[in-house]
Task: inverse folding
């Protein structure tokens, strides 16, 4: 993938490479990537051309600035190809998504044959629940995992999480940014044990009001659950 920019859409800067195939699996080539801004970062829907199978699937990448890109769980499709003889059994090329209140619509071009052969093309649609492009998952009911964020500013006294904790739970704690002092402990957190798109985070004692405007680090403890996103509402 290469990036170029222009102040007037007439004169363009020399293109600079920003992404290429993982050297550990060069047979899986980065082929095309529509990008879009969402949640304060940029996401890319990367078409990965698998040379050995002559197929294309869509994966996910992210960037803070469109210059530095990281693939998210390389090898895992955000739009998987369909089974044999399906309209998208051979290739899946995504367009930029359409955001609705209750879902994200990923329209994509599917084809029923290999990349280098004649094939039929189809307009296809994949659906995601809001903000569920990717997440952290801990599937084992007997284990607990901890995800700690970079420092973030508390902009509201209402912290909400997008998570699927059916059969498990998610607890949220807050710590001083760059330190170890606990501000709101995991032990005091009210566990979330449901599938929520905007579930409120609560504690048995205390809350976020005194922390508004301060930088903190959030700790998400997962047990048989998946966490996708959070926001200060």
Result:
């Amino acid at each position: 993938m290469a990036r170029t920019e222009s102040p007037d859409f007439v004169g363009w800067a020399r293109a600079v490479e920003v992404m290429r195939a993982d050297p550990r699996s060069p047979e899986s080539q980065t082929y095309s990537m529509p990008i879009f801004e969402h949640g304060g970062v940029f996401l890319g829907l990367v078409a990965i051309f698998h040379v050995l199978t002559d197929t294309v699937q869509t994966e996910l990448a992210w960037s803070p600035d469109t210059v530095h890109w990281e693939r998210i769980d390389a090898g895992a499709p955000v739009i998987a190809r369909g089974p044999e003889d399906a309209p998208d059994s051979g290739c899946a090329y995504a367009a930029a998504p359409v955001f609705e209140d209750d879902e994200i619509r990923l329209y994509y071009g599917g084809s029923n044959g290999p990349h280098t052969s004649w094939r039929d093309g189809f307009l296809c649609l994949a659906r995601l629940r809001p903000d569920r492009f990717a997440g952290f998952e801990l599937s084992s009911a007997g284990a607990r995992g901890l995800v700690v964020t970079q420092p973030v500013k508390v902009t509201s006294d209402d912290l909400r999480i997008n998570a699927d904790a059916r059969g498990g739970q998610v607890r949220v704690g807050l710590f001083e940014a760059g330190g170890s002092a606990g501000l709101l402990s995991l032990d005091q957190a009210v566990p979330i044990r449901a599938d929520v798109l905007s579930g409120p985070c609560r504690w048995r004692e205390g809350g976020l009001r005194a922390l508004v405007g301060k930088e903190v680090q959030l700790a998400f403890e997962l047990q048989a659950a998946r966490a996708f996103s959070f926001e200060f509402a």
